Amino acid sequence: MLSEAEFYDVVRQALWIATITSLPILSAALVSGVTIGLVQALTSIQEMTLTFVPKLAAIVVVFWMSMSFMSETLVAFFRDVILVAVAGD
């Protein structure tokens, strides 16, 4: 059985893992959104698909490139922290 401190430590680690694994995708969305917003402001083009399609493409490319990192991080957390906590070791 986990103590309260151990439980909160596992929750803290889970939140950190969630932050680390989502950071590449959120960064790609931020950078592409700001870049496209600047281009729209400079050219006065206000087309909705101009913001959506490149941002979605950037997110898909970054997700594809960082998929192995994300899955390795999540599997390691599950194996090293969650399974140990469930087993009661």
UniProtKB/TrEMBL annotation:
Pfam family of the protein (one): Bac_export_3
The organism's place on the tree of life at top rank: Bacteria
Entry keyword Membrane: yes
Transmembrane segments: 15-39, 51-70
GO biological processes: protein secretion
InterPro entries hit by this protein: Bac_export_3
Subcellular location: Cell membrane
Record keywords: Cell membrane, Cell projection, Cilium, Flagellum, Membrane, Transmembrane, Transmembrane helix
Coiled coil: none
Primary localisation category: membrane
GO CC terms of this entry: plasma membrane
Membrane topology: Multi-pass membrane protein
The family this protein is said to belong to: Belongs to the FliQ/MopD/SpaQ family.
Protein name: Flagellar biosynthesis protein FliQ
Organism: Roseivivax isoporae LMG 25204
